[in-house]
Amino acid sequence: MNNLFQYVPGNSLIHRLNPVSKLLLTVVICIAAFITDHIAVLLALLALDVLIGVTAGIAGRTWSILRGLLKIAAFLFLLQVLLIRGGTPVFWIITDLGLLNAAKVVLRLTVVCLPLALVLAVTRISDLTNALVQVLHVPYRYAFTLATAIRFIPQFLEEMSGIMEAQTARGVAFDQARGLKKFSMILPLCAPLLISSVRRTDQTAVAAEVRGFALRTRASAYKRYPFTRVDNAAVVFCAALLAAAILI
Amino acid sequence: MIKVQDVSFTYKDETHPALEGINLEVPEGGFLGIIGPAGAGKTTLARAVAGIIPHHYTGDFYGSITVNGLDTVDSSLIDLSRLVGIVFQDVESQIISPMVEDELLYGLENFGVPREEIPERMEDALRRVGIPELRDRSISSLSGGQRQKVAIASVIALKPRVLVMDEPTGELDPRSSRQVFSLLKSLNEDLGITVIVIEQKIMLLCEFARQLAVMNEGKIVRAGHTREVLVHAEELEALGVNCPRVTTLSRLLAVKTGLELPPCVDLDTAERMVRGLMI
Ligand SMILES: Nc1ncnc2c1ncn2[C@@H]1O[C@H](COP(=O)(O)OP(=O)(O)OP(=O)(O)O)[C@@H](O)[C@H]1O
Ligand SMILES: [Mg+2]
């Protein structure tokens, strides 16, 4: 779980795309998934997600994210199937419409979540913030906030599992609990964790401050993020994808 | 270089002052060690010297601190941070970027170091700290000690005139601890950087620091040249600060023999003294 959000170094075409192009592609895939009402289009988008993952040389990571999503998807699917009433019954209270809609919801969720996780795997966070500031003119303080939040995810999870281990050693049986029960056991741990995180981020803010945070401008970053021909192609591709989702 | 005059500070919403009547002077190119029990106010003093107090942590601040003629209250934190580099006690929260290279770039970029100078500064900093091979690694793949070194490198890359280190060897084994102090020594001697280091390992301070300040409950209870401070070894021990064994030995010898013996801080002088006694 910890390294699910971590950058995987590489030199693939996907890695070399401008971070802004990667974000654009992600956003367009998400929008397309919400616009379309065809299961075939959703399946095509899922195939595209996986293709991106494979091209970037992170098939393994893609697979483990998919597997993680599968659990949530299965739960959602069941819920939908049982709740949707319209259509002709197929079996017991399950209808054909229910099955179709449930499948769409689950696919949509997967199609949207997968690229969001993948973009973090193929982009360094610093490149992401730098490019947001340089290319999209996002104010640095917002980009910094985003970067810090992402940077603290693994640390947060690490501390969480540390606390859970400590609790387990004191006889709390996290591993035997499931679902809601487990959730209610973890919840009280979140408060102290949050407090220590806030204290931490405050220190990080000071560390940034004494290293010239306030002086940083759009021109500060050492690296440059030019839009290349590949990026232009990616933009055209995104436009086509969006058009297809709307028209089909 | 650094002049602390009658400084008292109470954190906002606290009743007890964290610093009380602090007076201290560190000359340009000096090497000051600060020691004292937990909660003595060492970190608070370090923050005050770097201007983080009162610019970031607010509270009641009395007295004055000047660094190279700049008053820490009147000057902006930006101007001060060009002068003073600080490495925090909790290195984890000091590191901003997820990659080593970016961590070093951060300050260099912000302070507007010319582009053509940046690669050299980065390499130089990494080499001085002894971790040139870690440049392309991600922070999360590093050990505590390696992170410590990355934090130090990212600060010395900025070439500060004053370097403040808050317990830099807290996570290090004895060998790496010595390496850090050797590094501080070379920065101090080769580049003339004024060093202030908070440290619990008294042996290291005795060997490397020229000045020593002992803190307790927000006050400086002893300050001066390292040797002078060690004359009061029993006072330090009362505070729970361990003295080097040679110092304790020489003090006991002085007491037992009734002779006027100077305190020893290293083995060589102790050996010479003992040999001298035996003749
Ligand atoms: N951010 C803060 N807000 C309020 N009080 C604080 C803050 N930081 C420190 N203090 C208080 O100030 C006093 C001195 O703390 P300080 O951290 O300077 O001690 P220290 O000598 O560095 O201790 P240690 O060896 O544990 O690092 C303590 O009583 C502490 O509780
Ligand atoms: Mg401290």
Report on the structure:
The complex is a heterodimer of chains A (248) and B (279). By secondary structure, chain A is mainly α. Chain A folds into 2 domains: 2-133 and 224-247, no CATH class; 139-215, no CATH class. Chain A is built from 9 helices and 2 strands; from the N terminus they run ααααββααααα. In chain A, strands 1-2 form a two-stranded antiparallel sheet. In chain A, β1 (89-91) and β2 (94-95) form a beta hairpin. Chain B is α/β, with parallel strands linked by helices and 279 residues long. Chain B has 2 domains: 2-231, Rossmann fold, CATH 3.40.50.300; 244-279, no CATH class. Chain B is built from 13 helices and 10 strands. In chain B, the strands form 2 sheets. In chain B, strands 6-7-8-3-9-10 form a 6-stranded mixed β-sheet, sandwiched between helices. In chain B, a hairpin with a 2-residue loop joins β9 (211-216) and β10. The longest helix of chain B is centred in the middle third of the chain and has 17 residues, at 174-190. The termini of chain B are far apart. The chains are: A mainly alpha (248), B alpha/beta (279). At the A-B interface, α7 and α8 of A face α3, β6, α4 and α5 of B. The complex binds adenosine-5'-triphosphate and magnesium ion. Magnesium ion binds next to α1 of chain B. The site of magnesium ion has 4 residues of chain B, from α1.
Oligomer: heterodimer
Most extensive chain interface and residues per partner:
A-B, 29 and 36 residues
Which stretches of chain A are low in confidence, meaning pLDDT under 50 for 5 or more residues running?
Answer: none
| Shape type of chain B | globular
- What is the helical fraction of chain A, as a range of percent? over 70%
Distance between the termini of chain B: 45 Å
Q: Give the strand order, joined by hyphens, for the main sheet of chain B.
A: 6-7-8-3-9-10
Averaged pLDDT of chain B, please?
Answer: 89
How big a fraction of the residues of chain A is strand?
Answer: under 5%
